[in-house]
Predict the structure.
Amino acid sequence: MPDYSPGLAGVPAAKSKISDIDGQKGILEYRGYRIEVLAEKSRFIETAYLLLFGKLPTASELRGFSTDLCAHRRIKYRITDLMKCLPEHGHPMDALQAAVAALGMFYPAKNVKDPEVQYHSAVRLIAKLPPIVAAHARMRHGDDPIPPRDDLDHAANFLYMLTGKPPEPMMAEILDVALILHAEHTMNASTFSGLVTASTLADAYTVVSSAIGTLLGPLHGGANEQVIDMLREIGAVANVRSYLEKKLAAKEKIMGFGHREYKVKDPRAVIVQKLAQKMFERYGRSPLYEIALETERVGTELLSSKGVHANVDFYSGIVYEKMGIEKDLFTPVFALARVVGWLAHWIEQLKDNHIFRPTEIYEGEHDQTYLPMDQRP
Ligand code: ACO
């Protein structure tokens, strides 16, 4: 019998030069650059260039990339019409997945190994995800989509298209850092899902729509929504310990805790926590933030012996909520960032493509006798 690892845990699915995790030391690097350095010194668009093309851009390369992204910020009215037809109570990730799949019909890009096709598909997807998410978020409340503003950067323009107001610079900066932190994370479930699709030589829009579907689940990108629900359910700092103890006794997971790779605190969670602190100091602390701090303290006390600590999703939800982003948009915001990682892996996969076709261990019957209906037990 071949070795079997449930969830493919520990089984390498690809060779990659894009990012690396040291889960024992809590280190994450994109193309060899520490995440802390990128969060402090880089901007999302520059980090996107680094992830996609393997090097930091020169000033003119960055200018060209930013200009191309800006030029693709508008979405076709038929994409907005498509989203208008969707039920307003449906999850925005489903709307995003549908719209991204539809993009592929407007921009056919079948020659996926052509570097020009790869560049333009990547630019379109990175540029168009924010207006899609913002347009859907507004239309489901009966509001018109807001056209993008070319003078605002990627994060600021997204918040503007969502709210109709240019954001406070600190809010836009914090979102930009959050996008950097979420842009890539080795062979996670959504990246793997995208790669399986990529390995069939499907186009980038199909690859990204597959990955979006996978990101939605509560054990992956959907956890940040559930953290907010959990903190609300806890309700007060005084209830934290009894709530967590009850959950653990019932063998339930604490949302925003634990990670397949990290056995210490997720380095991204450390940075998001600092962003949260900065934000709450500037705009006022909230009861939810106080509950989060206590939940992390008690949760770490109860779970650290198993190598389970806060992950990136633990604080990202409360940061987004403070920005005025609705709870069910947290995972779409994650997708706006992670699209870069999906595309970087897509480009890398196509350099030496092998279709993913794992095997399975069959545990069913053989040589069954087909009984007519009237003889079946
Ligand atoms: N709460 C309580 N206990 C936990 C948690 C948690 N969040 N995570 C892991 N554990 C415990 C498990 O119960 C298990 O205990 P046991 O050995 O006594 O049975 C032990 O720690 C090992 O956990 P596994 O489930 O084997 O860890 P795995 O690597 O399979 O799971 C996962 C990782 C899915 C992320 C898990 O930690 C989890 O469900 N967390 C909550 C959801 C979440 O926050 N997801 C976001 C992840 S980050 C991201 O996707 C961006």
Summary: The domain at 223-322 is CATH 1.10.230.10 (Cytochrome p450-Terp; domain 2).
